[in-house]
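Tokens as discussed.
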């Protein structure tokens, strides 16, 4: 296997255990398995899911982080060494019935980078299968490319349902993901409105000519499609109230613990409920390459791993956008 020399057997990383995050300098550099690459992390983003892990969303033990830009340090193909890459986060087994049905993101045995049974990106190095890695176009900066995973998640909505220009569309939540969803939908030809609470969120939307409104201004039963991306039970309730009968509700939020759903209302109003998770990387990179979407205005700050507490505190502030970590 071609190798770029790693100067130490151990690396710096953030370690999550029993909902406590700390920095460690004694984590062994991971060894790639067959068909895998060792990736040197250049930049990583703090996601809402990372913060939910600290609250117990999933009992993860290890290195969190799944939004990253890196360069290949070791892999079976010498021509790939040094290549800048982003990586899909689901590691599938390839042999269960979901994989054989080409639903690999729903693999029954899947591991998920930095979320489930596979160490993630808040470290100097990580490993992923070569099939998960996508080359970053030269004209796309690290700061742009680090948004590939959430941008792909936003694009998943376009895969799941056709939204017509005439549809009345509402996005509930104007955080990092909500902003990307609104931009993707606007680029698709419809004109979404976005529920936004904070001044920075509203300014970002105004800069893109995307209308925003506050919660009390949402008229009940008027919207054909509502995307719930607030991460809160209150946002889910607002989304349901905003939908017309036979409307479509797209759920993007992951909630820790149990969340109540008014099933009778869903049945009586014949609401179509669509869960939406990971999306396609190649179209996301293509959008960035063509300049159809530039997410860099969503970056609030860069921090070193040593300053992770400050970084996570900033990411948790109301109205905060993307906070990045440099290993």
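Sequence:
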């Amino acid at each position: 296997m071609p190798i770029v020399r790693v100067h130490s057997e151990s690396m710096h990383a953030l370690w999550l255990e029993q909902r406590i995050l700390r920095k460690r300098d004694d984590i062994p550099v991971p060894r790639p398995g067959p068909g895998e690459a060792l990736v040197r992390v250049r930049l990583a983003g703090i996601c809402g899911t990372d913060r939910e892990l600290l609250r117990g969303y999933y009992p993860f033990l290890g290195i969190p982080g799944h939004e990253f830009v890196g360069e290949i340090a070791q892999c079976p193909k010498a021509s790939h060494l040094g290549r800048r890459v982003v990586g899909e986060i689901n590691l599938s087994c390839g042999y269960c019935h979901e994989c054989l049905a080409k639903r690999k993101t729903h693999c029954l045995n899947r591991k998920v980078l930095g979320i489930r049974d596979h160490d993630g990106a808040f470290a100097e190095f990580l490993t992923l299968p070569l099939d998960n890695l996508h080359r970053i176009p030269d004209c796309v900066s690290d700061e742009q490319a680090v948004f590939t995973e959430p941008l792909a998640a936003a694009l998943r909505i376009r895969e799941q349902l056709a939204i017509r220009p005439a549809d009345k569309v509402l996005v509930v939540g104007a955080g990092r993901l909500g902003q990307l969803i609104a931009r993707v939908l606007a680029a698709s030809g419809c004109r979404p409105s976005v529920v936004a609470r904070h001044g920075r969120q509203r300014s970002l939307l105004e800069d893109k000519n995307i209308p925003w409104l506050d919660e009390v201004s949402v008229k009940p039963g008027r919207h054909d499609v509502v995307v719930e991306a607030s991460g809160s039970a209150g946002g889910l309730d607002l989304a349901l109230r905003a939908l017309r009968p036979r409307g479509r509700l797209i759920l993007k939020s992951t909630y820790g613990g149990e969340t109540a759903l008014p099933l009778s209302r869903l049945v009586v109003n014949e609401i179509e409920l669509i869960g939406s998770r990971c999306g396609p990387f190649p179209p996301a990179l293509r959008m960035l390459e063509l300049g159809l979407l530039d997410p860099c205005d969503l970056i609030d700050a860069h921090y070193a791993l040593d300053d992770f507490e400050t970084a996570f505190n900033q990411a948790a502030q109301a109205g905060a956008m993307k906070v990045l970590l440099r290993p």
